[in-house]
Amino acid sequence: TFLETQFRYIPDKRTQEVMVARNRLPDAKLQQNQTKSPTLVIGDSNIRSWTDYPADWTVVCHAGKTVEDLAGLVLRSVHMINNVDRVVLAAGINNLSNSDAQLDTNVDLLRRLQETLNGRLYVTGVVSSDRMSIQRQNRIEAINERLRAAAGTGHYIEPADPETTIFFNDDVHYSRRTGTQMVNIVQDFFRLG
Predict the structure, then answer these.
(1) Given this model, what pLDDT does residue 26 score?
(2) How far apart are CA 71 and CA 76, in angstroms?
Protein backbone atom coordinates (compact mmCIF):
# COMPACT_ATOMS: atom_id res chain seq x y z
CA THR A 1 0.00 0.00 0.00
CA PHE A 2 1.00 3.64 -0.22
CA LEU A 3 1.70 3.88 3.50
CA GLU A 4 3.86 0.78 3.42
CA THR A 5 5.97 2.22 0.61
CA GLN A 6 6.29 5.66 2.24
CA PHE A 7 7.07 4.67 5.81
CA ARG A 8 8.68 1.92 7.76
CA TYR A 9 8.39 1.53 11.48
CA ILE A 10 11.27 0.97 13.86
CA PRO A 11 9.94 -0.26 17.20
CA ASP A 12 11.69 0.79 20.36
CA LYS A 13 11.98 -1.30 23.48
CA ARG A 14 8.63 -0.09 24.85
CA THR A 15 6.90 -1.07 21.60
CA GLN A 16 6.32 2.53 20.71
CA GLU A 17 7.30 3.32 17.19
CA VAL A 18 9.59 5.86 15.64
CA MET A 19 8.29 6.46 12.18
CA VAL A 20 10.81 6.71 9.41
CA ALA A 21 9.25 8.75 6.66
CA ARG A 22 10.30 9.91 3.23
CA ASN A 23 8.68 13.12 2.07
CA ARG A 24 5.75 13.94 4.31
CA LEU A 25 4.41 13.59 7.80
CA PRO A 26 2.62 10.32 8.58
CA ASP A 27 -1.12 11.00 8.41
CA ALA A 28 -2.22 7.82 10.18
CA LYS A 29 0.20 8.21 13.09
CA LEU A 30 -0.83 11.82 13.66
CA GLN A 31 -4.53 11.00 13.42
CA GLN A 32 -4.07 8.27 16.02
CA ASN A 33 -2.57 10.75 18.50
CA GLN A 34 -4.79 13.77 17.82
CA THR A 35 -6.90 13.24 20.94
CA LYS A 36 -3.85 13.15 23.22
CA SER A 37 -2.70 16.75 22.57
CA PRO A 38 0.68 15.30 21.66
CA THR A 39 4.08 16.70 21.17
CA LEU A 40 5.30 16.07 17.64
CA VAL A 41 9.06 15.53 17.47
CA ILE A 42 10.44 15.56 13.95
CA GLY A 43 14.10 15.06 13.28
CA ASP A 44 16.94 13.57 11.31
CA SER A 45 18.34 10.04 11.74
CA ASN A 46 19.55 10.75 15.28
CA ILE A 47 15.93 10.77 16.40
CA ARG A 48 16.03 6.96 16.09
CA SER A 49 18.08 6.88 19.28
CA TRP A 50 15.36 8.71 21.22
CA THR A 51 13.80 5.89 23.24
CA ASP A 52 11.62 5.88 26.33
CA TYR A 53 9.83 9.03 25.31
CA PRO A 54 6.39 9.85 26.73
CA ALA A 55 3.35 8.09 25.29
CA ASP A 56 1.84 11.39 24.10
CA TRP A 57 4.81 12.16 21.84
CA THR A 58 4.76 11.35 18.15
CA VAL A 59 8.34 10.91 16.99
CA VAL A 60 9.04 11.05 13.25
CA CYS A 61 12.43 10.36 11.68
CA HIS A 62 13.44 11.77 8.30
CA ALA A 63 16.95 10.39 7.87
CA GLY A 64 19.40 12.61 6.02
CA LYS A 65 17.19 15.69 6.13
CA THR A 66 18.42 19.16 6.97
CA VAL A 67 16.77 21.84 9.08
CA GLU A 68 15.35 23.49 5.97
CA ASP A 69 14.03 20.16 4.64
CA LEU A 70 12.16 19.47 7.86
CA ALA A 71 10.93 23.05 8.32
CA GLY A 72 9.58 22.98 4.77
CA LEU A 73 7.91 19.65 5.43
CA VAL A 74 6.19 20.99 8.54
CA LEU A 75 5.12 24.14 6.67
CA ARG A 76 3.51 22.00 3.98
CA SER A 77 1.80 19.87 6.64
CA VAL A 78 0.43 22.57 8.96
CA HIS A 79 -3.15 21.48 8.23
CA MET A 80 -2.35 18.05 9.73
CA ILE A 81 -0.96 19.30 13.03
CA ASN A 82 -3.53 21.82 14.20
CA ASN A 83 -4.24 19.79 17.35
CA VAL A 84 -0.58 19.24 18.22
CA ASP A 85 0.42 21.30 21.25
CA ARG A 86 4.12 21.47 20.41
CA VAL A 87 6.33 20.75 17.43
CA VAL A 88 9.94 19.96 18.32
CA LEU A 89 12.45 20.14 15.49
CA ALA A 90 15.55 18.06 16.27
CA ALA A 91 17.93 18.38 13.35
CA GLY A 92 21.02 20.20 12.13
CA ILE A 93 23.85 17.67 11.91
CA ASN A 94 23.12 17.37 8.17
CA ASN A 95 23.66 21.13 7.82
CA LEU A 96 27.38 20.93 8.60
CA SER A 97 28.38 21.59 4.99
CA ASN A 98 26.05 24.58 4.61
CA SER A 99 27.56 28.00 4.02
CA ASP A 100 26.92 30.76 6.54
CA ALA A 101 24.50 32.33 4.04
CA GLN A 102 22.52 29.06 3.87
CA LEU A 103 22.44 28.88 7.67
CA ASP A 104 21.13 32.45 7.79
CA THR A 105 18.38 31.48 5.34
CA ASN A 106 17.39 28.74 7.79
CA VAL A 107 16.90 31.37 10.48
CA ASP A 108 14.36 33.16 8.31
CA LEU A 109 12.60 29.91 7.44
CA LEU A 110 12.35 28.83 11.09
CA ARG A 111 11.04 32.24 12.12
CA ARG A 112 8.36 31.96 9.45
CA LEU A 113 7.50 28.48 10.68
CA GLN A 114 7.34 29.74 14.28
CA GLU A 115 4.90 32.43 13.18
CA THR A 116 2.81 29.96 11.18
CA LEU A 117 2.62 27.61 14.16
CA ASN A 118 1.65 30.46 16.51
CA GLY A 119 4.58 29.91 18.83
CA ARG A 120 4.27 26.11 19.02
CA LEU A 121 7.71 25.43 17.49
CA TYR A 122 10.63 24.39 19.68
CA VAL A 123 14.10 23.67 18.35
CA THR A 124 16.77 21.49 19.92
CA GLY A 125 20.40 22.34 19.49
CA VAL A 126 22.65 20.01 17.55
CA VAL A 127 24.43 17.55 19.82
CA SER A 128 28.22 17.72 19.78
CA SER A 129 31.02 15.81 21.47
CA ASP A 130 34.30 16.91 22.97
CA ARG A 131 35.87 14.02 21.06
CA MET A 132 35.06 15.68 17.71
CA SER A 133 37.58 17.90 15.97
CA ILE A 134 37.61 21.54 17.10
CA GLN A 135 36.62 22.55 13.57
CA ARG A 136 33.53 20.28 13.67
CA GLN A 137 32.61 21.47 17.18
CA ASN A 138 32.88 25.10 16.02
CA ARG A 139 30.68 24.41 13.01
CA ILE A 140 28.05 22.77 15.20
CA GLU A 141 28.17 25.80 17.52
CA ALA A 142 27.64 28.09 14.51
CA ILE A 143 24.57 26.05 13.58
CA ASN A 144 23.33 26.17 17.18
CA GLU A 145 23.76 29.95 17.28
CA ARG A 146 21.48 30.22 14.24
CA LEU A 147 18.96 27.75 15.70
CA ARG A 148 18.94 29.68 19.00
CA ALA A 149 18.32 32.96 17.17
CA ALA A 150 15.60 31.43 14.99
CA ALA A 151 13.73 29.64 17.77
CA GLY A 152 13.43 32.73 19.90
CA THR A 153 13.33 33.20 23.64
CA GLY A 154 11.91 30.20 25.46
CA HIS A 155 11.82 28.01 22.37
CA TYR A 156 15.43 26.83 22.04
CA ILE A 157 16.32 23.61 23.86
CA GLU A 158 20.01 23.29 24.70
CA PRO A 159 21.59 20.01 23.56
CA ALA A 160 23.30 17.50 25.82
CA ASP A 161 26.65 18.51 27.31
CA PRO A 162 29.42 17.56 24.82
CA GLU A 163 31.46 16.03 27.66
CA THR A 164 28.72 13.45 28.29
CA THR A 165 27.73 12.44 24.76
CA ILE A 166 28.68 9.30 22.88
CA PHE A 167 28.88 9.21 19.09
CA PHE A 168 29.58 6.39 16.71
CA ASN A 169 32.76 6.58 14.64
CA ASP A 170 31.03 8.59 11.91
CA ASP A 171 30.71 11.61 14.26
CA VAL A 172 27.15 12.04 12.98
CA HIS A 173 25.04 9.48 14.82
CA TYR A 174 24.87 9.41 18.57
CA SER A 175 24.18 6.50 20.90
CA ARG A 176 20.91 5.50 22.54
CA ARG A 177 22.34 6.79 25.83
CA THR A 178 22.79 10.23 24.28
CA GLY A 179 19.32 9.91 22.72
CA THR A 180 17.92 9.21 26.18
CA GLN A 181 19.76 12.30 27.47
CA MET A 182 18.03 14.36 24.79
CA VAL A 183 14.59 12.94 25.65
CA ASN A 184 15.20 13.84 29.30
CA ILE A 185 16.41 17.32 28.38
CA VAL A 186 13.30 17.98 26.28
CA GLN A 187 11.01 16.60 28.99
CA ASP A 188 12.68 18.75 31.64
CA PHE A 189 12.48 21.80 29.36
CA PHE A 190 8.70 21.46 29.11
CA ARG A 191 8.24 20.40 32.73
CA LEU A 192 10.28 23.26 34.14
CA GLY A 193 9.22 25.70 31.37
Answers:
(1) 53
(2) 9
CB 78: neighbour CB atoms within 10 A? Answer: 14
Sign for the CA dihedral angle at 174, 58, 102, 45 comes to positive
SS (H, E, C) the chain: CHHHHHEEEEECCCCCEEEEECCCCCHHHHHHHHHHCCEEEEECHHHHHCCCCCCCEEEEECCCCCHHHHHHHHHHCHHHCCCCCEEEEECCHHHCCCCHHHHHHHHHHHHHHHHHCCCCEEEECCCCCCCCCHHHHHHHHHHHHHHHHHHCCCCEECCCCCCCCCECCCCCCECHHHHHHHHHHHHHHHHHC
Beta bridge partners of residue 89, listed in sequence order? 42, 123
What digits encode the pLDDT tens for the residues 40-52?
999 999 999 998 8
pLDDT over 90 at 93, yes or no: yes
Cα dist from 121 to 6, 16, 88, whole Å: 25, 23, 6
The number of residues making up the chain comes to 193
Comparing C-alpha atoms, which of 168, 70, 74, 87 is closest to residue 127? 168
